[in-house]
Amino acid sequence: MSLSTAIPLPSRAWRLLTLTELKLIGRTPAVLFWGIGFPVIGLIVLGLIPGTGKPVKAFGGASVLQTYLPIIITFMIVMTSVNFLPSILATYRERGVLRRMFTTPVTPRALLTADLVITLGIQIATTALIVILATGAFTASIRQPLAFIVAFLLTAAAASTLGLLVAAVSFTAKAANALGAVLFFVLLFFSGLWLPRAEMPDWLRGVSDGTPMGSGVQAIQEALTGHWASGLYFGILAAWIVGCGVLAVRFFRWE
Amino acid sequence: MCRPRPVANHGGMPVIEVSGLHKEYGPKVAVDDVSFTVEAGEIFGILGPNGAGKTTAVESVVGLRKPDRGRIRVLGLDPQRDHDELRELVGVQLQHSELPDKLRVTEALDLYASFYRQPANADELIDRLGLGDRRDVGYGKLSGGQKQRLSVALALIGTPKVAVLDELTTGLDPAARREVWGLISEIRDTGVTILLVTHFMEEAERLCDRVAVINNGLVIATDTPGGLASRAGGEQSIRFRASAPLDEDLLTRLPEVSTVRRDGDQFTVTGNEEALQAVIGVLIRHSVVAQHLRVDQANLDDAFVALTTHDQPAAHDQPATHHQPAAQRG
To answer: Which among A2, A16, A91, A109 is the top mutation candidate for probing chain B, defined by the most B β-carbons within 10 Å of its own β-carbon?
Structure first.
């Protein structure tokens, strides 16, 4: 009798899988516009409004641009991770794409991995573009780049695992879209899109600290002004990553 | 990197062996007790009404479902334990397995080809399946028949030894269906063993070497399509329209006749080889002319109806499943 040997995927399969998924995203205008175009345009518009580069007392001496930079990055992360990613994966499950893959030498896990990698890739590229624009064309600055990179990556990872969890618990693509939309507004509210965290009452900021995007914005914000945020914020992000990751793996179904 | 070892297929060992397969979903028994074997190079059909357990049976064969009881071997391998190895060797086309709408035909085949160690030539396969002029069309824009053919292509792209095809011509128009049938015969001629699930009689009659009829999770007959048809008792079916009112009791009383069905002035009579003579005799005596007279030999359709409407009293306290015994022509 034979041994069950996990046959390693040809690297060609990984390459084509990632490339194909990337092409499919490229053919989805909504993802390109809302995920990439809108945040970049938002930054440009904000930067062109006179006075947004000047310090504002209510924001603790930071400029409007400086305050909104982390929020714009977070907006882009939430949009791609919590809205688009679960929608893609839930649709694949609903339409039997994952089921079909299960019968080929490629496990559906490979497809999930490819989509996660692409999502992260889009986030990194878009953030790079936003940062170059904000610091090059406008007056924003990142005084602690390493802290910024760590904070950004943790925020992106927290959002992606949350997105996987949304895909895991949603039986249909419709449910994933609905849940994603609700989370989108909740997360962005706590990230300070409508009411910057600096203006939140203490209790509300406390709640915001507990959310991945609230902590993420805080950690990115402090990196901009030149220091590492308190370990608490990184700890909260890490807890979200581990928690959502474990639950997503536990509940994800191929069909 | 070890190549998958050549799979033993010596001395007429069956390619697929299923014995005592049993699978429940909660309180519902999907497959009660199913056994069959498929020999190398065969097209083996699994036939049954909707909800009979066909899909669950083949999903267990390809390792998508873990049976509660029973033994399954495909090419001598266990679909659960040796799933990784079998994925290379078994091509599968399942129901409700679509592709992303914006994925183009060539992209889909190139992608799936990359999953296998020895893929078929994607270009050739596209041409053979008549998708040559649709290469750059997205899946969402293909017709039902084209989608189905692409799905068959994906099942064959890995040059499998065994192809499992579930409801392959459902939703196809008659012309597309015939095309796909032609293709399946060709594939068999290249030495691929095929397990075909269908509820479509004509398909089974045209393609299958042998057929297992499944009903309520049990195999109720395994035979060649011709063998099954003759089990229906060599009965004739006589159809005609009566030119004048006719009491159907006159026909029912004939010893040669077994059943009479009447729908307005349209009669369908079944009976033995002498039935036609006897029926015509009655008609002449009552000065009734049989218009649009048609006499048919029993076929797989009849055999299927006879087998599946013979509802055994449920041996298990499972809820009786409602099914339409007649093939749905769609």
So the answer is: A2
Place of tokens 């760590």: A150
Whole-number Å distance between alpha carbons of A158 and A142: 22
User: Helix and strand tally (H, E) in chain B?
Assistant: 11, 13
Per-residue model confidence as pLDDT tens digits over B16-42: 999 999 999 888 888 999 999 999 999
- Distance (Å, rounded) from C-alpha B281 to C-alpha A133? 97
Quote the minimal CA–CA distance from B111 to chain A in Å.
6
Contact yes or no for A16 and B81 at CB 8 A: no
Residues of A in contact with B98 (CB under 8 A): 95-97
Least CB–CB distance from B64: residue in A13, A103, A106: A103
Minimum distance, in Å, between the CA of residue B235 and any CA atom of chain A? 43
B107-155 tens-digit pLDDT: 999 999 999 988 999 998 898 888 899 999 999 999 888 888 899 899 9
Cα distance from A205 to chain B (closest Cα, Å)? 42
* Non-local CB neighbours of B71 within 8 Å, separated by 6+ positions: B17, B18, B19, B20, B21
Order across the sheet with B266-271: list the strands: B257-263, B266-271, B236-242, B290-297
CB B170 within 8 A of CB B330: yes
pTM of the full structure: 0.79
The alpha carbon of residue B96 is apart from the nearest alpha carbon of chain A, in Å, by 6
Please tell me the distance from the alpha carbon of residue B303 to that of residue B228, in angstroms, as a whole number: 6
How many helices (H) and strands (E) would you count in chain A? 12, 0
Q: State how far the Cα of A116 lies from the Cα of A122, in Å rounded to an integer.
A: 10
Sequence-distant (≥ 6) Cβ neighbours of residue A106 within 8 angstroms: A9, A13, A17, B115
| CB-CB under 8 Å, A99 with B97 | yes
3-state secondary structure of B54: helix
Interatomic CA distance for residues A9 and A152, integer angstroms: 31
Chosen from A19, A21, A100, A253 to mutate, greatest number of chain B CBs within 10 A: A100
pLDDT for B67-76, tens place per residue?
999 999 999 9
Q: How far apart are CA B52 and CA B65, in angstroms?
A: 16
Task: Compare all CA atoms of chain A with the CA of B163 and give the residue at the minimum distance.
Answer: A103
Mean pLDDT of the A117-143 span: 92
- What one-character DSSP code corresponds to residue A187? H
Q: Indicate the residue type of A107.
A: T
ipTM: 0.85
What is the distance between the alpha carbons of residues A117 and B221, in angstroms, rounded to a whole number? 51
